[in-house]
Amino acid sequence: MNEYSLQAPFIYDFYTKTIKSVGGNPQFRTIQNIRLMLESNENFIETHSFGTVSKINGKKIRQIKHIAKRGISEPKYSELLYRICRDHEFTNILELGTSFGISTLYLAQVPGAAVTTFEGCTESLAIAQKNFTNAGVENIQVVTGNIDVTLEKHVENAEKIDFVFFDANHKRKPTLKYFEICLRKSHDKTIYVFDDIHWSEEMKQAWQLICAKQVITLSIDLFQLGIVFVDPGLSKQHYILAF
Q1: Domains of the chain
Q2: Which positions ≥6 away from 119 have C-beta within 8 Å?
Q3: How many CB atoms lie within 10 A of CB 23?
Q4: Quick one: which of 23, 30, 80, 84 is 20 to 30 A from 17 by CA?
Q5: How far apart (Å, rounded) are the C-alpha atoms in residues 97 and 199?
C-alpha cells in the first residue's frame, strides 16, 4: 500500500509527512559519526541479555563492531522515531533497550524531550553513556537492570507517557507485559513503536495480539517496525505500508 491508497486524512498525513519525510536534524551527523566509530571498534565486551539471545551470535563475548553493524537500528528507523516524537511534540519518552545508545541519541534531539532508557547489560550501557557524553546530550535518564523489575517502578512514578520504543526482550510474554505496564500512564495521543515485529514467531504473535487489543485504534506495519495508536478519535484500522 502507498500514499495514494490512503483515504483517511490522519493516516495519509502521518505517512507522507512523518514516515516518508526527508531531511532531519544537524545533530544527526554527530550521531552518525559515533555509529561509524562503533562499527570500527575491534574491542570485545561481555554482553548480558535478559531477553532472547541474538540469532546472529549468541555468545556472551562479542566484538563491539559486530554488535554495532548488526544489532543497532538503521539510521532511517532511528530518524523515524525522532520525527514521530518531534511532530507530536512529545516530551515524556521511554526506550526499552539502550544497547549503545544510538536510537537514544536520536530521541534526545526532540525539542523539550526527557528520554528515559532502560538497559540490562552494564557493559553496553557503559559504552552508551560515553556516547551520550561525547554527543553533549544531557536530557537522557538511564535505568540499569532487569526491565522486568525496573519498568513498573518507573511507570508508577511517571506522570504520563507520550511515547515508548520497545527494543528489549524479544519474546511474546515480556513484550505484552511491558506494553500493559506502559498503558497505565498513556493518554489519547500516546504512540507505541515495536522493533523487530517479524523477527521471530513469538514477536509476530505479540504484534498480532497487541494490534487486536480493544485499546488499539490504529496500527501500522512497516515490516521492521510496528506502530500503534490508542487515540479513541481514530477508526480501528490496520495498515501495511512500504518504508
Answers
A1: 12-240 (3.40.50.150)
A2: 97, 98, 99, 125, 128, 142, 143, 144
A3: 7
A4: 30
A5: 16
SS3 166: strand
DSSP annotation of 146 = -
Phi then psi for residue 231, to 5 deg, are -70, 115
Instruction: Please give the DSSP secondary-structure letter assigned to residue 107.
Output: H
Distance CA 109, CA 126 (A): 20
The closest of 83, 15, 54 to 222, measured between CA atoms, is 15
Pure H helices in 28-184: 28-39, 64-71, 75-87, 102-107, 122-134, 147-157, 172-183
Instruction: Give the torsion sign (CA, 206, 211, 215, 219).
Output: positive
Closest CA to 17 of 83, 78, 90: 83
- The predicted-structure confidence for 150-207, as pLDDT tens digits, reads as follows 999 999 999 999 999 999 988 999 999 999 999 999 999 999 999 999 999 999 999 9
* 211, three cell numbers: 494490534
Q: Residue 49 pLDDT > 80, yes or no?
A: no
Answer for the pair 47, 123: CB distance below 8 angstroms, yes or no. yes
Residue 16 C-alpha cell reads as 507522507
Query: 147 near 178, Cβ under 8 Å?
Result: yes
State if pTM tops 0.90: yes
Q: Answer for the pair 102, 34: CB distance below 8 angstroms, yes or no.
A: yes
